[in-house]
Amino acid sequence: MEKDWVKIYNTSQFFRAEIVRGMLEENGIGVVLLNRQDSSYLVALPGMAELYVHISQEEEARKLLMADPENEG
Prior knowledge:
Blueprint: E1 5-11, H1 14-26, E2 31-35, E3 49-54, H2 58-67
Antiparallel strand pairs: 1-3, 2-3
């Protein structure tokens, strides 16, 4: 990840990360989703999904996350 991107969300439930990513994109936030799940353990172990935004949009993204009642972290 480049130095100007910050992690704003992580979860072990990939579908939740996709939902949050969609919400951020609908609000004009550029977001990158990294799947940290090891492909050799796809079934047995949950990995982490992480969302990153550019530092210039971090404050707005965090406000949107805090306003989301289903936000888990």
